[in-house]
Amino acid sequence: MYQVKTYNAIAQAGLDQFTDQYQINQTDDADAYLIRSVNLHKETLPKTLKVIARAGAGFNNIPLDRATENGTAVFNTPGSNANAVKELIVSLLVASSRNLFAAAAYAAQNSGADISLRTEHDKTKFKGTELTGRTLAVIGVGHVGSLVANAASALGMNVIGYDPYLSADAAWHISTTITRARTLAEAISNADYVTVHVPKNEETTGLIGKEQLAIMKDGVRLFNYSRGGIVDNQAVIKALDAHRVQTYMTDFGDNILLNRDDVIVTPHIGGSTQEAEVNGATQGARTIMTYLETGNITNSVNLPNLQVPFQTPYRVTLIHKNIPNMVGQIATALANAGINIEGMSNAARENVAYTIIDLENLKNEEDNALIARLSKIDAVFRVRVLKK
């Protein structure tokens, strides 16, 4: 029986994915966490914890280094809220170009018998522009960015995409009408709108700052519905004050952005739809079950991807450091225990490696002894024995 602990409100449709081999919220010493936005950085991860799945794309609320050292695989659910974010960006493109927020605020503050005449006279203040023929730069064309790029192209916009890490699989999802820029500067220099859809890491923090804003054309509209910190808000404020940026829209609040007519801050609602919550919870639950039952890894954010058909009665998995002779030590330990290896697969991701070993025979009483033997190898974080 596997134990799963949930944080936040997890959609029931996701919880319904778990089979009768799983118990939900029966203990704090769980095998798996299924979470959304809870901050785990100050939490102690139990040694029993084998997997964390976040029902969403971001994972900066999870201490990846500590999770790895604990032998805990961490997964996100990429693409689960992509359509939700895409639809919000499309709505904001329209709203910003037609000055809808300012127009609605004006209308809400006017009343009286002559309101029709007054608003008819004043409506020229809110004259906007159409999206057709305008240029949109999409920075990051993964799950979300590719959908935004395709939708904007369908609206008649000229779309330029920039993503130095674009995978072959992701490229298939991008319309042939999208122009691919070779550099960030090339993408943003002539854009009327710039939207950012990249994960937050050391390379992308401050990706849009003073230098990049100086390259953009006057009157550009900027959107950050990716992560806070990817756009330098201090630099944006200066660009807004200089009337170089016309509008800044973001999902991430900051005191310096408050009480400005040229800034729209939404309360982190990019992926907050009923459908996205169901998608994330469902994908997260399935990820947990796949990992716990087969050891196969897809979409981990701290371990390498590794999928091997589980065709033998037993499987041993190891999370360990990516250093020389680890596979040799593991194989030697199994040989010394008199255990024959049917198949072995190994993959690495920077300083961490993952090994799957398939076995035909393993006596039940050997499980703990084998785990103990392999766990004694230096640089091994976790050993698991799985039965098909």
UniProtKB/TrEMBL annotation:
Organism the protein comes from: Lentilactobacillus diolivorans DSM 14421
Catalyzed reaction equations: (R)-2-hydroxyglutarate + NAD(+) = 2-oxoglutarate + NADH + H(+); (2R)-3-phosphoglycerate + NAD(+) = 3-phosphooxypyruvate + NADH + H(+)
Enzyme class: oxidoreductase
Record has NAD as a keyword: yes
Pathway: Amino-acid biosynthesis; L-serine biosynthesis; L-serine from 3-phospho-D-glycerate: step 1/3
Annotated PROSITE patterns: ACT, D_2_HYDROXYACID_DH_1, D_2_HYDROXYACID_DH_3
E.C. code: 1.1.1.399, 1.1.1.95
GO MF annotations, alphabetized: NAD binding; phosphoglycerate dehydrogenase activity
Record family assignment: Belongs to the D-isomer specific 2-hydroxyacid dehydrogenase family.
Summary of the function given for this chain in its UniProt record: Catalyzes the reversible oxidation of 3-phospho-D-glycerate to 3-phosphonooxypyruvate, the first step of the phosphorylated L-serine biosynthesis pathway. Also catalyzes the reversible oxidation of 2-hydroxyglutarate to 2-oxoglutarate.
SUPFAM superfamilies in the cross-refs: ACT-like, Formate/glycerate dehydrogenase catalytic domain-like, NAD(P)-binding Rossmann-fold domains
Taxonomic path: Bacteria, Bacillati, Bacillota, Bacilli, Lactobacillales
Domain ACT: 315-388
Top-level taxon: Bacteria
Name the UniProt record assigns to this protein: D-3-phosphoglycerate dehydrogenase
Keyword Oxidoreductase (UniProt): yes
Keyword line: NAD, Oxidoreductase
